[in-house]
Design a protein that fits this description.
- Residues 5-134 form the Gfo/Idh/MocA-like oxidoreductase N-terminal domain.
- This is Oxidoreductase.
- The chain has eleven helices and 14 strands.
- It has helices spanning 16-26, 42-51, 63-72, 91-100, 115-128, 142-152, 181-186, 189-192, 197-213, 322-338, 348-365; strands spanning 4-10, 31-37, 81-85, 104-107, 132-134, 159-167, 217-225, 236-243, 248-254, 263-270, 273-278, 284-289, 295-298, 372-373.
- The termini are far apart.
- Helix 1 packs across helix 10 and helix 9 (197-213) packs across helix 11.
- Strands 13-12-11-10-6-9-8-7-14 form a nine-stranded mixed beta sheet.
- It folds into two domains: 4-134, Rossmann fold; 140-316 and 348-366, Dihydrodipicolinate Reductase, domain 2, CATH 3.30.360.
Amino acid sequence: MNRLRLGMVGGGEGAFIGAVHRMAAALDGDWDVVAGAFSTDGGRNARTGELLGLEPQRVYPSLDALVAHEQALPAEQRIDALAVVTPNHLHAPMAIAALDAGFHVFCEKPMAMSVVEAEAIAAAAKASDCRFALAFTYSGYPMIEEARARVARGDFGAIRLVQVEYLQGWLSLPIDTDGNKQAEWRTDPARAGLGGCLGDIGTHAFQLAEHVSGLSAHSVSADLTTHVEGRRLDDDVSALLRFEGGARGTLKASQVAAGEENGLRLRIHGECGGLDWAQMEPNTLTLRWLDRPAEIVRTGGPGLHDGVAALTRTPAGHPEGYIEAFANLYRAFAAAIRGDGDRWYPGVTDGLRTMRFIEAVIANAGSDQKWTLVTPGENE
């Protein structure tokens, strides 16, 4: 198996998500980070490259320099894909530049700043015939695949209820004005986009709800709130969802739920039963039934869908978590690039759906309209 070569833009010294991408990419031996433009700060950029053991000439001062030099290298040396781990406002220009240059792209979420930008990325990916992946990390957990498979084969009957919540408390105080860089850009409309909490974690919740339920939300009724005085973007989101087929849903996302850590939870109920999964206990899936006792299903345990084993690395009882879930996406991305099977990973479709969700929530919350279509023109 040939190891693929990964470049990275953003994710320099001290950046949380860049390090996570590198750990996930390395876990299964599919990827080597060989190049990057990690920071606009020259010293930080150089130190990151040195820490990663990169050749100095492949630590670039900008994306333009990276693309130009990598394109000029022999095919067996140049990068195969670029990881974009910058603030949101750079996702579209950087992803499009890489795709236009013939490089596959693994991008942080949300996909872009707007639906228009997301559509431009989708067009660039199609024109280049390159792969585009998005870091909807939680969809890489084995128990999420188990949940999706059970819904798809009809274990719970026709789906009626989809409930998802994502609660954090880290923005309960105005740390975005006190020098916290992670908080600062996430609450800046010029860098984060139209949504704050909505774009940062609301998109994770929405993508997970659609992915596991197998249903598309066609309309939304929403409320956006900014609890911390002076903050420029929302820090709290509540939404009612109407799904195809008649299912109803609720979505709650907040970054001012004081005391919460990373409380992502998904519950789906059909005619005869339902499921319950929580990210902070990711190796457990609870199944509840109308006519029999509840069941506990565990990662690595008996009775799992065949596809789940491919997402699991250790025997039952050895916890697998966030990095392993992220690595499952990088492994599927590598398989797609090699043409090795048809493993699922979040990509253009998920990106466009979540961007349309963001814009529908903002439009609805800012109007007196009761319901707003997630995809205008559909279901009218």
